[in-house]
Amino acid sequence: MMVRCLALRILVVALCGSAAQAHTICTAVADAGSGKILLRQGDCATRVTPASTFKIAISLMGFDSGFLKDAHTPSLPFKEGYVDWGGAEWKKPTDPTRWIHYSVVWYSQHVTQTLGAARFQKYADALDYGNRDLSGDPGKNNGLLRSWIGSSLEISPLEQVNFLAKLVNRKLPVSGHAVDVTEEITTLDPLPNGWTLNGKTGSAFPKRADGSNDEDHGWGWFVGWVKRDGRTLTFARLIQDDGKVQGAGGVRGARCILERIAGPGGQAGEVTLYPRRFLK
Question: Which terminus of the chain is less hemmed in, N or C, by CB atoms within 10 Å?
């Protein structure tokens, strides 16, 4: 009885209404303080591309290196020839806050190219990020531009929650300033029960044997952390489309988010997955 009262119980009451469009590969939640995995559903050990969730790591690198200064510096203009598949918002001057909010790939590329291949790899190794493979597409020498987008760099959901736990516990080999501003620019709307929320979506397609994108089976990530009353939980959710659908997989996956999380003392809690207006 005492063990039961002291246990943290989590009840998954819904798994999102996207089942007809995609299936959930993994939902993982960990206590950042103890390192205990609180929820592990599905295949949480297989590595796939991090896609734009890697912007959290790039942010740490950029601020630690000094290229990124604060939440609004530097602001860089869009130029012809930059990747622009993200639409009109990608064609506007972009600072670190807009970069994360609109997931602007060309801004990421500015950071990585400024670092250079050697320093970029040194950071990936120091952060122990997934398989740490920044080589890019075979034979294309594009690791600085897209190794994290359906390419060589891969990470599992469990590795995501562990990486984020090191971030929030300030155990990564980067400056306090880098962590502070990364937390600032990844902050999302607070949850209605007092938990603060930080997170990042990511979407990418698997590659077919001929190198083309398999747009029928795109991946969607939502990773981040929640805090309340001195407690921090990290989470990762990974879905994969079952057919070609409109909208980025990461955004659709992020519409399923932690609402209520139990505390100790025998109080059963809920992890409710529900739509959030702030997700773009």
Answer: N
